[in-house]
Amino acid sequence: ATIAINNANIYSDIEQRRVTLSVIVDQIDDPVLIVDPEQKLLLLNKAARDVFDLPDAKVVGHPINKLLKNEDALAFITQEVEGNEQITGEIQGANGRSYQVRMTLIEGGSRSILMVAND
Questions:
Q1: Residue bearing the bigger pLDDT, 13 or 83
Q2: What pTM does this model have?
Q3: Which domains does the chain possess?
Q4: CB count, 10 Å around CB of 28?
Q5: SUPFAM superfamilies recorded for this chain (predicted)?
């Protein structure tokens, strides 16, 4: 029973931190998204949903290639990133605006990719 209570407390703490992080990221004006090594969407903010024309529905956990309609953005996001490398480029959003984008690897066990765009 003690292990179950500890696990429940750990889960609750992790969930609270996830929600806090999501709220913070959602307040960032620039589009931000994080994709895991399997190319599944881990996190995105409202600006990214707007730029990539993604629904507000539950898209986290879904493969990025099933979500993005923009082939240029998809090609950029699915590039291989190694070590401290930072990839930069330009994509056009669903709104027709051009965005300077940079992508970097997030080390720490999962090798996820962080992408930030500026117009």
A1: 13
A2: 0.78
A3: 29-118 (3.30.450.20)
A4: 13
A5: PYP-like sensor domain (PAS domain) (SSF55785)
Retrieve residue 39's tokens.
Answer: 């190319």
Distance CA 3, CA 32 (A): 37
In Å, how far are 51, 53, 58, 110 from 95, measured between CA atoms? 6, 8, 21, 32
Residue 43 β-bridge partners: 34
Q: What percent of the residues of the chain are helix, what percent strand, and what percent coil, each to the nearest 5?
A: 35, 30, 35
Taking the CA atoms of residue 58, residue 101, residue 73 and residue 108 in that order, the dihedral angle to the nearest 10 degrees is: -60
Residue with tokens 């004006």: 29
DSSP code string of 56-111 = SS--TTSBHHHH---HHHHHHHTS---TT-EEEEEEE-TTS-EEEEEEEEE-SSS-
pLDDT digits (tens, 9 = 90+) for 44-93: 999 999 988 888 768 989 999 999 888 888 888 888 777 778 889 898 88
Number of CB atoms found within 10 A of residue 18's CB: 11
